[in-house]
């Protein structure tokens, strides 16, 4: 099944409560996918800052101490880059005042076995295996502020139960994708992307979707066009939520196999797999609540 | 065990208690598990009135009711609310999730808000009233149920419908009545597209009467003459190679 909860806050005064709101949404979708979970939070103070690149690394044990990682990165980057390494729950966040690509190369050289699960100036991505609420609690979601948040509780169908196979997939700066469903032709699209030079981190079908969208954005599509193109190329059934630094998008497959419900108020846009995840949001009684149409791309920007 | 609260104001004060006076039972789903609620409803006696508070979008509320009771759910319901409904009446003062009143056999289910996809799917009888919109696949494979939707319905509604009536006071989505057998569909608004073997048919007096009865039963005041009727062209009952492209 898998469960999705996504929240974009329009009212800045709600940003302090982003983590607690997302946490309460997530509680209600655990039954949909209890094997693992992932989170993405945007503009969360203490995790990311604009003008600074941040990478999210899977796991907290990389064979080197935090100081050793920092020293290695300092020696590779310019002295003004001032790298910062911190462990949040089961995730390692590495930040520095350099271009993301340069930081990626430096981290890959320092920690060749590490898996980068998030990158950009705005987003921090956290993943784990186990009960989704424990993963959220380990990472301190409830006390996080932010502008957007995204969570996914996974029931693995297309690849193994590993933290690396958890959603969201974040394969370009500030881009995240979560998926409920499965893509049936992901293997052939993967081969085409590999021929274009795209590299993959996992066997997961959703990663193919994320890599495809990143590739379309690189070719000049905006988010809406990229998702429309995905609809033409991918077979299968899906509800997707894609976030960028300032946008959130929702799309369902052309026969709308997988559930999705959206609530909009002046204060926020919230999307979830089921209504019960939205039930505790403030002002939900008077929100505009609707189910997205099949195959139609919905986008909202901050 | 279900935790019941019986407000004194709702209990008849005169003694001895007259059996014709319904006793109102209130179940708070913050205190009681859904399984216990459903067991209590199965054990209820004819004529009782039950109220469910704080449903919070929980799944499988009031399923399989086989006693002549009225159940009022004050708030939103999750998946499969009032599924397999046999007797009595369930009213949801909120929205309902996927599979509302799925496989309803008889009785009445009324949603005052919107219903998600597959509402009244495979229903054999009874009446399902949705005041708001219904999502995709409303009345899919309906087998005798009557459905009245105050708003719009989504795509692939009444797919393979075999019997019963579907009334839509708003618009219908793509592929309405795809591969329909014998059910009757009445739509007041626009139809995005008709599915395979579904055609518009003339409104005769018997259809206007039938529709008027359904609208009244649903508590609606729409004018039957503003509706169009759709049904099966009966070209796809038996496989014919000449029709192979129509499936």
Q: Which descriptors apply to this entry?
A:
heterodimer; A: 302 residues; alpha+beta; Glutamine Phosphoribosylpyrophosphate, subunit 1, domain 1; Alpha-Beta Plaits; 2 domains; 7-stranded antiparallel β-sheet; 5-stranded antiparallel β-sheet; 7 helices; 16 strands; 25% helix; globular; B: 247 residues; mainly beta; Pectate Lyase C-like; 12-stranded mixed β-sheet; 12 strands; 9% helix; 22% strand; elongated; oxidoreductase activity (chain B); Glutamate synthase domain-containing protein 3 (chain B); Glu_synth_asu_C_sf (chain B)
Protein described:
The complex is a heterodimer of chains A (302) and B (247). Chain A is an alpha+beta fold and 302 residues long. Chain A folds into 2 domains: 3-48 and 132-301, Aminohydrolase, N-terminal nucleophile (Ntn) domain (Glutamine Phosphoribosylpyrophosphate, subunit 1, domain 1), CATH 3.60.20; 49-121, YebC, transcriptional regulation domain (Alpha-Beta Plaits, 2-Layer Sandwich), CATH 3.30.70.980. Helices cover 25% and strands 31% of the residues of chain A. Chain A contains 7 helices and 16 strands. Chain A has helices at residues 18-27, 66-76, 100-110, 132-138, 186-195, 205-218, 223-233; strands at residues 3-9, 36-42, 53-58, 84-88, 91-96, 116-120, 123-129, 148-154, 169-172, 175-183, 236-243, 247-252, 261-264, 268-272, 288-290, 298-301. In chain A, the strands form 3 sheets. Chain A has a 7-stranded antiparallel sheet, with helices on one face. In chain A, strand 9 and strand 10 form a beta hairpin. Chain A is globular. The relative contact order of chain A is 0.19. In chain B, 9% of the residues lie in helices and 22% in strands. Chain B has 247 residues and is mainly β. A 12-stranded mixed sheet of chain B has the order 1-2-3-4-5-6-7-8-9-10-12-11, with helices on one face. Chain B has one domain (24-236): 3 Solenoid (Pectate Lyase C-like). Chain B contains 2 helices and 12 strands, in the order E-E-H-E-E-E-E-E-E-E-E-E-H-E. Chain B has helices spanning 34-43, 205-217, and strands at 4-5, 24-28, 49-53, 70-74, 89-92, 108-111, 127-130, 143-149, 163-168, 184-187, 198-201, 228-232. The A-B interface holds A 28, 255-256, 259, 261, 274-279, 289-291, 293-294 and B 56-59, 76, 78-79, 95, 97-98, 114, 116-117, 133, 135-136, 154-156, 173.
């Amino acid at each position: 099944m898998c469960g999705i909860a996504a929240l974009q806050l329009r009212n800045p005064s709600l940003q302090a409560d982003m983590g607690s709101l997302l946490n309460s949404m997530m509680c209600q979708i655990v039954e949909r996918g209890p094997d693992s979970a992932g989170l993405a939070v945007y503009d969360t103070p203490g995790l990311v800052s604009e003008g600074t690149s941040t990478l999210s690394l899977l796991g907290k044990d990389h064979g080197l101490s935090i100081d050793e990682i920092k020293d290695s990165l300092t020696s590779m980057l310019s002295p003004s880059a001032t790298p910062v390494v911190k462990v949040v729950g089961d995730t390692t966040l590495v930040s520095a005042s350099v271009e993301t690509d340069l930081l990626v190369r430096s981290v890959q050289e320092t920690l060749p076995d590490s898996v980068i699960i998030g990158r950009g100036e705005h987003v921090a991505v956290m993943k784990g295996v186990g009960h989704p609420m424990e993963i959220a609690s380990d990472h301190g979601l409830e006390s996080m502020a932010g502008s957007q948040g995204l969570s996914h509780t996974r029931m693995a169908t297309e690849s193994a139960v590993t933290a690396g196979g958890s959603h969201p997939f974040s394969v370009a700066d500030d881009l995240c994708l979560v998926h409920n469903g499965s893509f049936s032709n992901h293997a052939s699209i993967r081969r085409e992307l590999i021929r274009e030079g795209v590299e993959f981190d996992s066997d997961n079908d959703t990663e193919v979707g994320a890599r495809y969208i990143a590739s379309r954005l690189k070719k000049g599509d905006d988010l809406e066009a990229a998702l429309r193109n995905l609809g033409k190329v991918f077979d299968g059934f899906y509800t997707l939520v894609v976030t960028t630094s300032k946008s959130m998008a929702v799309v369902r497959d052309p026969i709308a196999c997988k559930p999705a419900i959206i609530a909009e108020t002046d204060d926020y846009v919230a999307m979830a797999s089921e209504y019960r995840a939205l039930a505790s949001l403030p002002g939900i009684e008077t929100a505009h609540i609707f189910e997205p149409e099949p195959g139609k791309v919905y986008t909202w920007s901050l | 065990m279900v935790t019941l609260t019986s407000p004194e104001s709702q209990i008849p004060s005169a003694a001895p208690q007259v059996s014709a006076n319904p006793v109102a039972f209130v179940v708070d789903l913050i205190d009681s598990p859904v399984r216990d609620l459903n067991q209590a409803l199965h054990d209820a006696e004819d004529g009782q009135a039950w109220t469910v508070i704080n449903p919070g979008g929980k799944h499988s509320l009031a399923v399989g009711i086989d006693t002549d009771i009225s159940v009022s759910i004050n708030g939103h319901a999750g998946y499969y609310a009032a599924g397999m409904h046999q007797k009595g009446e369930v009213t949801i003062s909120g929205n309902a999730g996927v599979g509302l009143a799925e496989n309803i056999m008889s009785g009445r289910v009324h949603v005052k808000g919107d219903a998600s996809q597959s509402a009244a799917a495979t229903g054999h009888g009874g009446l399902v009233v949705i005041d708001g919109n219904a999502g995709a696949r409303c009345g899919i494979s309906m087998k005798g149920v009557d459905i009245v939707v105050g708003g719009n319905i989504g795509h692939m509604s009444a797919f393979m419908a075999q019997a019963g009536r579907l009334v839509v006071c708003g618009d219908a989505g793509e592929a309405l009545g795809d591969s329909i057998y014998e059910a009757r569909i009445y739509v007041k608004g626009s139809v995005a597209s008709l599915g395979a073997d579904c055609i518009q048919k003339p409104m005769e007096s018997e259809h206007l009467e039938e529709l008027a009865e359904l609208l009244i039963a649903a508590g609606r005041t729409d004018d039957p003459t503003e509706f169009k009727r759709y049904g099966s062209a009966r070209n796809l009952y038996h496989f014919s190679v000449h029709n192979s492209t129509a499936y």
